[in-house]
Design a protein that fits this description.
alpha/beta; Quinone Oxidoreductase, Chain A, domain 1; Rossmann fold; 2 domains; seven-stranded mixed sheet; six-stranded parallel sheet; 11 helices; 18 strands; globular
């Protein structure tokens, strides 16, 4: 099969033929139809992000395809089914503390790397082998819409955060990082889940206006000034009431001051979820005040990715139309042009934009 292979950090992807994956028990083979590239893919492939990924590897964090073959343990999946290939692979021998690898992307700890050595190659290929539970049916879709369905991979991340927070309909949410690709998806997901209003702080006035245009009065934009105390007060004012839940999904390049200002808007007994990359490349600690956390009964929850059930739940929201993937602007590339796609993704990040490779 044809695949894009990352052989060494900082080198272009090599487009070449590699052996077809071999199906094993507890696995599914999928013919990949579309896979999206994050805006920071070039930073991952250069090694700048320091993601644990054993090279050479076929990169790519999941995507949309059709089942080619299933193992003997599959009871409902069948050849031809449309599925989302979930890159979040969990070990099966520890239900309480499973090791995790993001297939074709990264891993957590030694256990995650051990898992990665088996579920190694990602979605930038004509076929992908995934654990049975990671081939999630999304129902019948039009083949022409497969690229837009790659938005599942973006929206699933903040959705996992809101599930961890126990977000309830009618609550007020603040999304720290709302003008980014994952942050704007978080805004859409929170509103689809029934949030009464979403506070969207950011520095990019054009992006803030675009969010307000898309989502109307339930979206409360706030232009960040860079002054921590003032921004905290300003975001609380924009909320027009208590902030029940804060989701931070800022990238590694952001300093902790802007994150801290957002987190400290939350009301007493409120919940904070940390899902971003702040501090991963060094820098100062978040340094939240102990008395404020304790006396206000603040819940702080770290969340990496999402539970297995999140994929069919979110797919159902999209199938119903409550969550609209049609608002994404999609640019498509063939597999032979994967390096051009990486460059395009880097230059065209931001809200509701996707760069998709069609293997």
């Amino acid at each position: 099969m044809k695949a894009a292979v990352l052989k060494e950090w900082g080198t272009p992807l090599a487009i070449e033929n590699i052996p077809d994956p071999v199906l094993g028990t507890g696995e599914v083979l999928v013919d990949m139809v579309a896979t999206s590239l994050p805006s920071y893919a070039a930073e991952v492939f250069s090694g700048e992000r320091r993601y644990p990924l054993v090279l050479p590897a076929v990169p790519g964090g999941g995507g949309v395809g059709r089942v080619r073959a299933v193992g003997p343990d599959a009871t409902r999946l069948a050849a031809g089914d449309w599925v989302y290939c979930d890159c979040t692979v969990r070990s099966r021998d520890d239900a309480l503390s499973p090791d995790i690898t993001l297939q074709g992307v990264s891993a957590r700890g030694e256990g995650g790397l051990k898992l990665q050595r088996y579920f190694h190659d990602g979605s930038l290929a004509e076929q992908m082998r995934v654990p049975t539970e990671n081939a999630v049916p999304i129902g019948p879709i039009n083949a022409g819409d497969a690229a837009r369905w790659c938005a599942l991979g973006v929206a699933l991340v903040p959705y996992g955060g809101f599930l961890a927070a126990g977000l309830r309909a009618g609550e007020t949410v603040l999304v720290s990082g709302a003008t980014g690709n994952f942050g704007s998806a978080a805004v859409a997901v929170a509103l689809a889940m029934g949030a009464a209003r979403v506070v969207a702080p950011g520095r990019n006035e054009v992006a803030l206006q675009d969010l307000a245009r898309r989502f109307g009065p339930r979206l409360r934009p706030y232009r960040l000034t860079g002054e921590e105390a003032a921004d905290c007060r300003g975001m609380q004012t924009a909320a027009s009431g208590p902030v029940d839940c804060v989701l931070d999904i800022m990238p590694p390049s952001v300093g902790t001051g802007v994150v801290r200002a957002a987190l400290m808007t939350v009301r007493p007994y409120g919940r904070v979820v940390l899902m971003g990359g702040v501090g991963m490349l060094g820098g100062s600690d978040l340094a939240l005040p102990y008395p404020w956390i304790m006396r206000n009964c603040i819940t702080i929850h770290g969340q990496w990715m999402y539970p297995r059930a999140a994929v069919p739940w979110l797919a159902a929201l999209a199938q119903s139309g409550v969550l609209d993937f049609g608002q994404y602007e999609v640019t498509e590339f063939g597999l032979d042009h994967a390096n051009e796609a990486v460059a395009h993704a880097a230059a065209n990040g931001g809200p509701f934009r996707m760069t998709v490779v069609r293997p």
